[in-house]
Amino acid sequence: MTDGLKKKSVKCPQCNHQFQIMGKPGEKKIVTCDHCGLKGYIRFKKTIAEQKTQSSTPSSHSYKDAIQVSHLSKKYKDVIAVDNISFKVKRGEIFGFLGPNGAGKTTTIRTLLGFLKPNAGTALVGGLKINDHLVDIRKKVGYIPGELALYEHLTGKQCLKYFSDIRNTDLSLLNELQTIFELPLDRKIKTYSRGMKQKLGIVQAFMDDPEIVIMDEPTSGLDPLLQQKFYRFLQNEKEKGRTMFFSSHILSEVEKICDRVAIIRKGNIVALERIEDLKKKKGKKIRLKIKESNEKLTSFPNAKQVNGWIEFVTEDHIDETIKKIAKYTIVDLEIQEFSLEDIFIRYYDEGEDN
User: Fold this and answer.
1) Cβ neighbours of residue 30 under 8 Å, at least 6 residues apart?
2) Which residues, other chains included, contact 52 with Cβ-Cβ below 8 Å and sequence gap of 6+?
3) More confident residue, 5 or 352
4) Mean of the per-residue pLDDT values for the chain?
5) Are strands 212-216 and 243-248 parallel, antiparallel or unpaired?
6) Mean pLDDT lowest for which of 70-84, 236-250, 312-326?
């Protein structure tokens, strides 16, 4: 036997033909059955010494926060894309990262994954510094990019296998994901619709059971029914303890599935709280019609007139607000809890006013 190589007996799952292969400890090899032609992969077990070396990096149980960003900045020449931002993503939560196009969401994500180098600050992902442990970080993290670039001459199955070979990981969740998302894996990707390609992107991010998944606009191209299925899938993954970073400009989905949210505006974090706390903190939205002239409503200087309605936001106790408007003759009245959309628009309105 060649020094350092080990022999392993393999049984083909399709034709039951048995044969032997050679490989190094820890190696993942692509094999082809010489009887029926079925292709697959086999991983050789690592030696005890290699396992000890691997355990020298922080384990999945040695860090408190899944992502920790400290004073991170990124510039493109004279344009400041991300400006001295800091935040933490707790283990096991779905963290929303909310902002319109151009706010700095994708730049932040690409910096966390090492595709861009920060001009200042640092970050830890899975307990590892992005400047020092990019290879180990990418083993822990699944990623759905905002713009998928796939090898369209491959079939879906070949594409997933290619990603698996690059990562050198097992596809432990592939069967479960295929049951949920029902992809035609034997078809070439060039025949896929946009929604199918997005489903393939989702599958490749979760298929090897990563500790953390970073998603940049993951529901783009998904129809409403599939979006709901995807939301339920994320909730199930959260129950398993998986950490998910969910970047989006779709306000309703962030409100629906995320535990906390950071709102980013022009490269700055302008809010970072639990969604329910954020809504309670910002008050209620009042809409009313009065019999008197609208100009007589002077108790609320921030009131606006919209299609015959008077609209304003109050952070006072609702009882105080009702007492203030009781001196008018009320024709119609609506009191709404602040949605995440209201908060989002308010932050951006304030930013433009300033």
Assistant:
1) 39, 40, 41, 165
2) none
3) 5
4) 84
5) parallel
6) 312-326
